[in-house]
Design brief:
Length: about 375
């Protein structure tokens, strides 16, 4: 059993509380990681707000980078001292995992969202009074100085790259970039419209620049985000607050529509617009998650006439052990400049970081979990 500092989400709507907690020793396939940096994703805030079900009190955090502190007896994928990214978890044994599609793991919800404990029901975290806390959020709960992950959701990563840029690869960057590079795969000369210029949408724009798509159109309500999208490689932007996005996209494409679209905002109006924006036979990837139970209507004759494909995409349909090293190498070579999205915060400023994510002031806040030498000196 080890001691750590964690941001505990005690109850829906309550601020995070930094507390000393206890973390269980790694079992056979588990990996204990000293967390350097963890990104804040809107899913963390949605759980904290009580909109996405994960049992509280618990520790959130699901995109991180750190160093392996200890491994269970059956772990061969990594060893103590190695730097790793933390990403989503999967069981490794079900047909989807065996077929190389861990995002479709039959235990995905239990391992990543609703469980809050190991699959066998045992807790992994306890608070200072010895009461169990829910952990294993995305198989990690990395808003803590120590995270208990598994040998399937850690991916080795080089030591010479900045932690604040690496942390978001485990969810946000992988989700946006993977949707484009693994699923939509725009062909030469095709157009892609990205609805929502947050961390996921902008990662999709960055990835689209690596393809031969000739039009990359960002759609958002915030002109500052659209300016950023343009700096990152969008060829066109649509301010959906200022004009009708459907009409704007029709104009931009000579009324042909876009071959590929990606909905990252979770707004059903944007989803309808994205379907309507598709060219004949076009493909829409749906990433943004509205509240559970949300439905949208379909114009059935239009479906038959135009043959759109609508695909739900989780975590960029990524096989993390293969995809994340490739993305990190692209980052190293300056071809995926995610640093533009990131702002780092000391761990204890988690509430400010969360507020900045919610207000849209910052695209991707990243918490720095280990005190830097100057910060340590200052607190002495
Ligand atoms: C989310 C996407 C929306 C449903 C819950 C999981 N993934 C990452 O944050
Ligand atoms: Zn996420």
């Amino acid at each position: 059993m080890a001691t750590a500092e964690a941001a505990v989400a005690r109850a829906p709507g309550r601020p995070f509380a930094i507390e000393s907690i206890r973390v269980d020793d790694p079992r056979a396939h588990e990996v204990l990681v000293t967390v350097e940096a963890a990104g804040i994703c809107h899913t963390d805030l949605s759980v904290r707000a009580g909109h996405t079900p994960f049992p509280l009190p618990g520790v959130l955090g699901h995109e991180a980078v750190g160093t392996v502190a200890a491994v269970g007896c059956a772990v061969t994928a990594t060893s103590p001292g190695e730097r790793v990214l933390l990403t989503f978890d999967s069981c490794g044994a079900c047909p989807a995992c065996q077929g190389g599609r861990p995002v479709r793991c039959e235990h995905w919800p239990a391992l990543n969202l609703f469980g809050g404990c190991r699959l066998d029901g045992s807790p992994t975290l306890w608070d200072g009074a010895g009461a169990p806390l829910h952990g294993k959020f995305f198989g990690q709960s990395s808003f803590a100085t120590l995270a208990l992950a598994s040998d399937r959701n850690v991916v080795p990563v080089p030591r010479d790259l900045p932690a604040e840029a690496l942390a978001p690869f485990g969810c946000g960057v992988q989700t946006g970039a993977g949707a484009v590079l693994n699923v939509l795969r725009p062909e030469p000369g095709q157009s892609l419209a990205v609805f929502g210029a947050g961390a996921v949408g902008l990662s999709a724009v960055l990835a689209a620049r690596l393809t031969a798509a000739t039009r990359i159109i960002a759609v958002d309500l915030d002109p500052r985000r659209l300016a950023l999208a343009q700096r990152l490689g969008a060829t066109d932007v649509v301010d959906a607050g200022a004009r009708d996005a459907g009409e704007a996209l029709a104009e931009l494409t000579g009324r042909q529509g876009v071959a590929c679209a990606l909905e990252t905002s979770g707004d059903v109006r944007a989803l309808r617009q994205a379907v309507a924006a598709l060219a004949i036979g076009g493909t829409l990837g749906v990433i943004g998650a509205p509240p559970a139970g949300t439905e949208v209507g379909l114009d059935v004759p239009q479906l038959l006439d135009r043959g759109p494909r609508i695909i739900g995409i989780n975590q960029g349909a990524s096989l993390p052990q293969r995809f994340l090293p490739a993305l990190v190498e692209l980052f190293r070579r300056g071809r995926l400049p995610v640093t533009e999205l990131v702002r780092s915060y000391p761990f204890e400023r988690i509430e400010q970081a969360a507020a900045d994510a919610r207000s849209g002031r910052v695209v991707k806040p990243v918490l720095m979990l280990q005190p830097t030498p100057t910060r340590r000196a200052r607190t002495r």
